[in-house]
Design brief:
mainly beta, Ubiquitin-like (UB roll)
């Protein structure tokens, strides 16, 4: 899966999201990546390189080659 512009090969990196390889641009923030993937930020927990990340820090984290992101969706039920 390619994020944004597939013609920009120089800035392309590979990360893992929930164990799956994912190609994206290197200058994207974690928040922008999650929004692009259409996650509701209110309903997820994010683990970034084995650290749980507060939602107020998502914009300050810039994705790098080899990063590992785990996304857990909170589901209510009864």
């Amino acid at each position: 899966m390619m994020l944004f512009n597939s013609k920009v090969e120089a800035n392309k990196i590979v990360i893992k999201i929930n164990g799956q390889a994912f190609s994206c641009l290197s200058d994207i923030s974690l928040k922008n990546l999650l929004e692009y993937l259409d996650f509701d930020l209110r309903l997820i927990i994010i683990e970034y390189n084995s650290i749980i990340i507060s939602k107020n820090k998502l914009s300050s984290i810039i994705i790098k080659e080899g990063d590992q992101i785990e996304i857990v969706t909170i589901v209510g039920g009864g």
